[in-house]
Amino acid sequence: MINFIRGFRGLLSCIFWAAASSVAASETQQARYDVRLLGAKLGEMVMASAESATRYSVRSRFRATGAMAALTNAKFDVSAKGRIKGQRLIPQSYSEVTAEGDHATNVQITYSGGMATRISGDTGSKAPPVDPAHVRGALDPLTALYTALRDQPVDRACRLDADVFDGQRHARLSLTQRTAVQGGVECAGQYRRIAGYSSKSRKNRTIPISVRYTAQGQTLRAELVTVRTRYGKVTLHRR
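^ that's the sequence the OP posted. Answer follows.
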């Protein structure tokens, strides 16, 4: 399970006991999720965010609970800030701190002109890193996840197709297949590892993902995330 969490920390940047940094004249939200593997609860997640007309801020934490807490002390604390331009989120800073047994990461990224211009800390990988100039315009992992899980207009659903860069690795998150379901919409796609990964990680290059949203008037709200991994089906259930 530790290897699963480590491999997907960018995609499933999770939260517990979190609060977003303040944004002037902003609307704040908080979403709580149970994280499960094959139906068994692994931990709890809360995503806290704040948006104004031109800015966003989001912070997440995760902790293992129950029987899983006795096996691992896996924890994450991830945050991101940036600008909003039209429907696009444009990151300006990203911070990640993880702890998984005797393994830990501590990464900070600063952006300018749509590119990661300063990367510091330990990404936890010995593979050759991707040159940030090759992924200009990429989202940081938390901004990518927040883009998928934030409330959104019905007519904007299932349009996410973005490069993701965590200071080391380049991936692409796509949620473009739209299906009408009872009470809402389901968006399906994949998380595809492209470069900067170890040979072991590249063996599981493509991970199917779906997000189910329920309609709240003209707004869709993410209620269930399903990630099909080599360890089994991982789900995030919104409380």
